ABC transporter substrate-binding protein
Amino acid sequence: MEEKTDWSRRTFLGVGALGVLGLAACGGEPAAPQVDVQVPKALLDQAAGLRGGSVGMLSQKLYAEAANKALDKSLQVFAQATGTTVRNDLVSGDAGDMVAKMDAEVKAGTSRDLAFMSDRRFVGQLHNLGHLTDVTDVVEEMRTLYGEPATEAANYCVFDGRWYAIPYHFIASGMYLRKDWYEEKGIPLKPHYTWEELRDNALAVSDPAKRRYGWGLTVNRSGDANGFITNVINCYGGAIADNTGKKVVFNSPETVAAVEFIGDIYKNPKYAPMLPPGIGSWTDSSNNENWLAQILGLTLNQFSVYADSKTKKNPVYANTHVFNGATGPALDRPLAYGESNSFVVFKGAKNPDLAKLVAKYMVSGSALLGVAKEAPCLVNPSWDKVWDSDPYYTSGDPAFAALREQTRAPLPITTKTGYAFPQAPSPGEQAATAAYLLTDMMQSVIQGTRPAEAVAATHARIVQVFEQQGYKQ
């Protein structure tokens, strides 16, 4: 489903105590799952003094519409059980202007009280703008209840030893290939591959006459393309910024080599048989749609595509080999540590206490379970003990064990060139990526610009973005 740029609002009014609530299907779409969503008594007690209050919330839209409906259901149960009002707006995280919109609203005094969004992509920018409230007290309270959050969160949510975001649910990184196509060609299934192996294997399994295209990765403007390009550059030993996140180091021989590798895939006639029609204009939903159409042999995606194949009983689910990612000349271990959608409370929030209470409610129990079941393996617990809270998380899918291990990944992962990932949160890097400078660079290479020239030009553009963020180069 293609995401809209504008806010999409849902309002839930509190009218009294409520246990189980179902949302009716609309427009032929599936109703929210029948999970017994309840508000824990401890939170009801904390909410007693907040009855009649209201809170505005912004949610980064989940790929599975049923999961968005389940999230609505959890919020509606909370509102009615606590006698409060929750206004929830959905927004695409890939529109490129999300931070700019939130910045304008905070400055105008019209922002929501809280939001959840990718900690890796957005929290650093908002903290750098000075818009986030310290939520260390909430995180410490949750640690006593749920153990430790995903290891990546300590990198992306903590600034100067204080937490400015509350981990909500974990989103693993992953790659997917057609194991039946690989087996037909006698290509072994492995925990990970080099990028060169993936390219060569993709060509080997391709057969356009049978609508089999081995390569399902685009470099068109999209979040997936940003992830792909960045991963290859890092695996080759390059990076946008140094480990402090403050100095641009993009223009390096390693980055040029990575860009040459990527560009050759889309320019060299040798690889044309493995590229599906229209890949040059794909958006974020396109690789999902083409994977589910069973014409791709490889794609890189969050677990949204895996969740869709399972919930919609698509035959591709049984033929999917999930692996942690690729390696390169500078790295023999995949950069697989994921990210969390995390809650932030904005400065100037009209009801910060209620905002924090909503966050505490959503991260565990039936509130999270209902959303997780509608997006299997895409929406996962961020907190260690929540994984043990329901049999679904321990036995609901074969991939869960590996996903949980990803939340515990020892970090950082260091390349031969000295870059340690995840690096310090970099508002400059987040802003440069959101502006699609990397995808623009690859488009220029495909159109004929020499990789070294494209990298140098992009380096200059990234420097401008960093300086706009206050980091003089």
